[in-house]
Amino acid sequence: MYLSNAAYFDFAATTPVDERVVQTVLHFMREEFGNSGSRTHAYGVNARNAVEAARRSVADVVGATDDEVIFTSGATESDNLAILGLAAHLESVGRRHIITSAVEHKAVLEPLEYLESKGFEVTYLGVDESGLVNSVELASGLREDTGLVSIMHVNNETGVIQPLADLAAVLSDHPAFFHVDAAQGFGKELDLLRLPRIDLISISGHKIYAPKGVGALVTRKRHGRERLPIEPLMYGGGQERGLRPGTVPVALVAGLGEAARIAILDYQRRLEAARQVEQKVLEFVEAAGGTINGDRSRSIPNIVNASFRGLDSEAFIVATKSLVAISNGAACSSHAYERSHVLEAMNIETWRVGGAVRFSFSHESSLPDSDELVRIIESVRF
After folding, report:
1. 215-271, pLDDT tens digit by residue?
2. pLDDT at residue 272, as a whole number
3. β-strands 200-204, 215-219: how paired?
4. pLDDT grade, residue 331 (50/70/90)?
5. How does DSSP classify residue 8?
């Protein structure tokens, strides 16, 4: 039972926790509550076993090995660990050039801005109206001193899936590390994240029906044996291969592992159900005279971004809040509204940027009365 009667369509911001995950988390909070670092008794051993089982489940989603998974507090920390954790190595080998895209999440863009302030050079690849990064532009931007390429899996505002296979092909003979922020796509699109050329993958639990406060960084060994030269951002313990000190939150990690297991188990059913909801949303957008932002043929079904001419997105969100809970961008930026840097990078018309609304949903979502939504749109258009 949700707190509000409004249909929840902000799953890209966060998801409810799956009941099976809830039971797993509660079990390791109340019963097997040991510290996974305690090796002298059964409580600690059982906790460690749970953590390692979760590690295997997360690894299975992306085709990694369990020793390549580092648990973190979420994708933001994982992004920072991947980018800033490589900085010392990149500097030592004279590869201070980094390539990213203009539509990345702030969790990638802001660490890169920090590195720019320290003397690194960052190239920001543009996108076209489809929201896609062009692999030809990546090839043109690569230099001998390029040390890192960071391109997201699925865009958090438009749902567009970036052409990671094409980008990986461009990087096949280049030594640059390839990092992918997979916060929105982990467990929702399986094939691309299993590309062996991807070195680093950032994951967030609360986007796939696990609790907030847990995530992972996959650090894929090169040639199956060479660990990546990442340095920790904090010090104080040997947990997580020395890359993330502090007591491992066993209950949260076990919950993430269960959510990852379910993501594979229920993948096809969830995908088909989400496509049915997507079709309803697209029908509503058409009926309301809206325009889709981003290439729907290259997107996950769970996120639809649409603009309505003569409509201020903030006004629409307020007017419809009793019917549907939606947003107009990333939740991390909602406290201080700014025009979407993603939509602006796509070079679409100004009215589309200002009138954009993001519908993000699950395989179990039901769109509220679309006729009423259309009526409200007409009432608040200017």
Report:
1. 999 999 998 889 999 999 999 988 998 899 999 999 999 999 999 999 999 999 999
2. 98
3. antiparallel
4. low
5. E
Tokens linked to 323: 């019917």
- Alpha-carbon gap, residue 360 to 176, rounded angstroms: 33
Residue ranges making up the domain that contains 349: 7-16+268-380
Q: Give per-residue pLDDT as tens, 174-230.
A: 999 999 999 999 999 999 999 999 999 999 999 999 999 999 999 999 988 899 999
Q: Are residues 40 and 135 in the same domain?
A: yes
Is 253 an active-site residue? no
Residue 2 lies in a domain: no
Asked if 141 and 49 sit in the same domain, the reply is yes
Which member of 88, 165, 234, 332 is catalytic?
Answer: 332
Query: What is the number of other CB atoms lying within 10 angstroms of the CB of residue 245?
Result: 14
Confidence of residue 329 (pLDDT cuts 50, 70, 90): low
Contact 24, 258 (CB under 8 A): yes
pLDDT at 7: 93
The CATH number of the domain holding residue 124 is 3.40.640.10
pLDDT given at position 315? 87
Residue 380 backbone phi and psi in degrees, to 5 = -110, 0
130-134 long-range contacts (CB < 8 A, ≥24 apart) are 130/160, 130/294, 130/295, 130/298, 130/346, 131/103, 131/155, 131/158, 131/160, 131/293, 131/294, 131/295, 131/342, 131/346, 132/160, 132/162, 132/163, 132/295, 132/298, 133/101, 133/103, 133/162, 133/163, 133/167
* One-letter identity of residue 332: C
261 shares its domain with 272? no
Give strand pairing partners of 149.
99, 178
Secondary structure of residue 266 in the 3-state scheme: coil
